[in-house]
From TrEMBL:
Keyword Protease appears in the UniProt entry: yes
Single biological process term from Gene Ontology: peptidoglycan metabolic process
Keywords: Carboxypeptidase, Hydrolase, Protease
Gene Ontology molecular functions: serine-type carboxypeptidase activity
Name assigned to this protein: D-alanyl-D-alanine carboxypeptidase/D-alanyl-D-alanine-endopeptidase
Organism lineage: Bacteria, Pseudomonadati, Pseudomonadota, Betaproteobacteria, Burkholderiales
Family that this chain belongs to: Belongs to the peptidase S13 family.
Gene3D superfamilies, per database record: D-Ala-D-Ala carboxypeptidase C, peptidase S13, DD-peptidase/beta-lactamase superfamily
Pfam families in the cross-refs: Peptidase_S13
Amino acid sequence: MSRKNGTFARVCFVRIEVVKFSVVALSFFIFFSPAGQAASKKSAPSLPAPIQKALNSCKVPKGDFSLSVIPLSDKGTMLKFNSTAPRVPASSAKVITSAAALQLLGPAKVWTTRFISAEEPDRNGVLSGDLYLVGHGAPSMTIERFWLLVDNLRARGVKEIKGNIIADRSHFDVAPHDPFAFDGEGNRPYNLGPDALMVNSRSFFIKIRPDKEAGVAYLYPEPRIAGVKLPESIPLSKEGCGAWRKQINPDFSNPLKPAFKGKFPLKCGPKDYFYTSLSADQYLQVVFADMWKKAGGTWKGKVVQGKLPEDSDDYKVLASSYSEPLTKLVYNMNKYSDNIIARQLFLALANTQKDEPKNLEGARAAVYEWAASLKIPASSLKIDNGSGLSRTTAVSTDAFVTVLKHMWNSPQMPEFVSSLPISGVDGTMRKRHVAQGNAHIKTGYIQNVRSIAGYVQTKSGERYAVAAIVNGPSAINSIPVMDAVICWVYGR
């Protein structure tokens, strides 16, 4: 970071102090108490001094900012500013996805993935025909769960598969997805589209461990997959750690043998690197082949895309895998802002009462119908893919706090609240020490967007639903604005 940029960052970070009963506090009461709201209808809305100070310091125009704060009880102050304007929320949109999923699908919902065959293996363990691998849109199947599924197939007595693996992804009816379209980072797993047979987020994991004495950073794939070859190390550099992923200059022109043409900054210390380079069928091919061989099985076929025949009632289920329950999936999605889980989960909302392919139109319709039941105006909510990785999704802060208050009073409240990152403690709020331990906040960030949505408990023990969004070029510097909002609520 340049000296100039570093200076700006220090200037932009505004330390918020708890507002005490003073002339300023009295002005808060005038503007934000019920009586004050009625009196202020004739004048332009105002903001509490700490929030206004943060906006000024970070050069965020008021027109780019929306805010809603409402009490979860009948007591307390309500604060709204540009609150009906729909804005791009980035990953805070996952609040909507997770709330709708918990209510429409239920916290105990699980998804199945199955190996299905027209026949049982013979007495020698040979399966002479094709083997179907049928996905039902599991939001997450880790490499460990897939290994267990493969091992269960082997334990069923299958030793050799003569045919192909037919990958049935027909549970999702979605258009082809370009992972490079959003931000050009198509080899980052967060950009993957939905897949009814998603395995391990179609990603590879490398531990990067620098060795100063050797002058290199060693690369350790986990797990090691036969057919995927990595260099053992890459050179070290003395550069700063910023944008280290670009500094290593990955080259995926040979997807099974990626190269790293740059250097790894020593100052970074150990890092973990996730990447995706294969199509869905290619990934399944190398992973299944490796795991099947390690399990002692034989297979010389290919993975090809297809569909289980309509007249398959007499087919045999040879092995099954069950996903983690929805409660755990929502936890992982919100704590770590997992876009893949969000996209998969969003599609699961389509046609929940029918066993038919899921599509985006059906998922959106389900969310809009659910939102309408909460009396959220149609103009306040537009959802694209459920993850927030979109520039067409638009949500007002009023819509956010309506959902938050509804979920607070719902039977699914414990599962929902516990999924949100805790300030200064875990998830995407781990390094944000504002109101430490007293705020459950989902954050959102893409270019020209910053947002928060969640709950804050005040020093006096009151709880509030909070949502704030900045859209525009100033969003990149607006974290102190979000912190100011949380601090102001916490100090009430």
